[in-house]
Design goal:
Length: 129
């Protein structure tokens, strides 16, 4: 198994993920473009959730959160102030509105079917990558 050690490697892996099947809060099956498939991939300090209605995102600052949104909805993130964890949000069907106190100098961000974003706290604001 290759260990990902740099931010650039993480971004490349994220860009090539074609699906994530949630097994439980810390285990997922990840399929990467090109047909490579890992099974029972255990990810430390990650929480995976498939959601279909308006949801307030997890607030444990020691966890990164991955949300697969299976219906149009609003996902409310906590304030980015003092946080170090990240959020990955994927819109599988319809428009997903991500709301918080500050996302790229706004209070919300819409993503659409088959789009995803990664949000990281930078200087008291959620930054989109």
């Amino acid at each position: 198994m290759e260990v990902i050690q740099t931010e650039t490697q993480v971004v490349e892996v994220i860009k090539n993920i074609t699906s994530i099947d949630v097994v439980n809060k810390t285990t997922a099956v990840v399929e990467i473009a090109g047909g490579v498939r890992g099974s029972d991939v255990t990810v430390q300090n990650r929480t995976f959730a498939s959601i279909s209605s308006n949801t307030t995102a997890g607030t444990d600052a020691t966890q990164d959160y991955w949300y697969a949104c299976t219906a149009p909805l609003t996902l409310i993130l906590p304030s980015p102030v003092g946080r170090t964890n990240a959020y990955h949000v994927e819109a599988q069907t319809g428009t997903v509105t991500i709301a918080s106190t500050s996302i790229e100098d706004s209070t919300s961000l819409d993503i659409y079917t088959n789009e995803s974003v990664d949000l990281f706290p930078v200087n008291g604001m959620w930054r989109v990558f």
